[in-house]
What does this fold into?
Amino acid sequence: MMTALARVRPEEVGIPPSAILRFMEDMTERNMNLHSFMLLRHGKVAAEGHYYPFRKDARHPIFSVSKSLTSAAIGIAIGEGLISLEDKVIAFFPDKQPEAVHPYTASMTIRHLLSMQTVHRKSTNKEARDIVFEYLHTPPSHPPGTVFAYDTTGTHTLCAILQRVTGTTVHEYLETRLFQPLGMQDIEWETCPLGINQGGSGAYCTPEDMARFGQLYLQDGFWNGIRILPEGWVEQSTSKAVDNSSAGILLEGRSGYGYQFWRARRQAYCAFGAGGQFILVMPDQDAVFVSTANTMLNRDEHQGILDSVWTHLVPSMEAFCPHDDAGYQRMQQRLSALKLHLPKGSSTSTAAAEVSGRHYRLSPNEPGWLACRFTFSEQQCELIFVHETGRPGVLCSMNDWDIGPDPFLWPSLRLWCRMGRLVDLLDPDSTAGGAADVYPDLPFRPRWSCAANQAGRGAQNESF
It folds into this structure.
């Protein structure tokens, strides 16, 4: 049975409650779309916050933090003697090789995949049925080991290599070697059409699972006195393997890249996923910080989370901190009231009575919806879509977030909840309106907008 991480008052690990309050206030001032955060020091949870409707026990997509899990799997496999850093990638796939293998591709190794120094300047076709086949057949642009280029399909190829040598997926391989020993329960991990885990961006876990993984690295690969990761792997995989000053993404001043880990300031390092998914390991402070978020509305906004950690949390960490009962109570009250900020817009509409209960034909759209119907009550709006295969619907609150399943949008994804608030609905002056939903499995917000025209009403689906 899983044992929860120990929870303590922050003062017990040298952190004043006022520092955590300042961090939360800064997140509010930045209008940061934070979903959760956890702060550990000396292996104990000093503070954790979950912004309603996100729950502490719900799995969250971690996007490219998945790459760091893949890195751990490769390290374990190397420790077991199954593979080595200098193994040539092409040797694992004789059935997928082109007739004439380019010399650059032929010389690419596992080390090159881990450190993002592959032969491609970007990911190849991530939507292909056989991603590895496309990867090996895409003409290379430069020799391996010469250019840092973020390459998610290279990470997927690492998963394919591991599956070739073990006969199991990376998920299955890590289950007994890492997930179970650490108490990381019910990890989900998407696969490609060929059954290979999407190692570059496909895992789902709880914030506490992320914290356990970070703590494992802080402890040099040990957990409860048992070595989980091979000796030396933590240092090797999190040290600077390549200069990433040319990276398109801004993260910690582009301080370097290891083996699927990003270097950070002050000798720290992190696992990073799109939208603000972070596991920041700070050896000098004996601390781990975890966040889940959605910062995709503004480019590089994720950096603001780490800036706030370094500005408000780290400077306050001391060997000893006196108890501050009043500050602790204020911190607890703030933590218990955390809530995802609502989208801008009106929660009422004078046009509601006009359109409620009526069906409207829709202009041609990709999902194939034929018509829609709004039904308003004082506090809620039910939105029904008519499709040849059925009439899926979603219930939105007019004033707050709603939680519930998503019956029709992106059905291939594992959406554990749907949240919505109606925004600027059917304003009689502009004859326009919309509904905004946030899906925890997506790094962006889909927006449904409806507009009137002479023939009737149309609808479209946008991302913002």
